[in-house]
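Input.
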Amino acid sequence: MSFQAEKQVIREYYDALDNAKGDGITAVLGQYTADNYTWRAFHPFHLQTDSKTVSELFWQPFRGAVTSMQRRMDAFFAGNNFIDDGESVWVCSMGHLMGLFDAPWLGIQPTGKMIMLRYAEFHKVVDGRIAETAFYFDIPHFMMQAGYKPFPDQAAAHMVQPGPAPHDALLFDDADPEEGQKTLEVMHKMISDLGQWNSGLPLEEELALSWHDDMIWWGPAGIGATYTIARYAQQHSGPFRAGLSDRSGTGHIARIAEGNYSGFFGWPNFKAKATGGYLGLPSNDKLCEFRVIDVYRRDGDKLKENWVFLDMLHFFNQQGVDILGELEGVQE
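Output.
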């Protein structure tokens, strides 16, 4: 099956959006999105169902603050949605929105220097228009580039993250469907192996079922990026499991794969309780949502790289910590 029509819609949408200014952004969104458009995003933007609101709430303030913006994509692929038995087609884009941080945004004070907003986005294309969008972005990393330290206890490293090592994830032309099916199966194996937290194996052995030993986990600011199974277990997966309990099943809305790349997102992906404390927060019994986009690269019969977008601000808010609200001059 070809995804050229859906990919072309998104490429044209990005070209129009990235070159529009002010109210022109509202016009672009109106042109490319469906009448019953659904837009899901991280805190403080959340769920919106009107393209004009999306323009006025996110895009116009962001573009007013981050001038001369350019989109630097590292991944672009599409696929039939496994969750609805292939009835819908989604297009995934991942990379950074780069520009000059020239005016305040969300209470974050400008630097006048280059800055990047790390993002991943899923678009559902129906009859030539965008019916749904999941737009997840790393605001804490944006803050760190501007000189803030939102998370004092980050266990792993964080940096402006590169795209896939082979530099082959911009699938403007459709990839071999058989390769995409292999990638989907490997991702499903990983979800089965790791998603239940009850395999009975030591953590590193469990991870080795689905991951290469030299895997890279490009995590969000607040957790960080880790390299090799051993360090991933030490710096993220182990503390994550120790700090959380009563994990629910997945609530994925879309899972797709094309070529060696795949991804999914949920709203939320799952719920869990921070009964063991997590990221320096006190233990509690509150059931919290985890909003996540994951993008994967397969190498052979295992996964090699994983880019993770997790709504850390929303998680902390649910724990009673309002990171943005504590900034002087924060916008409501």
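The mean pLDDT is 93.
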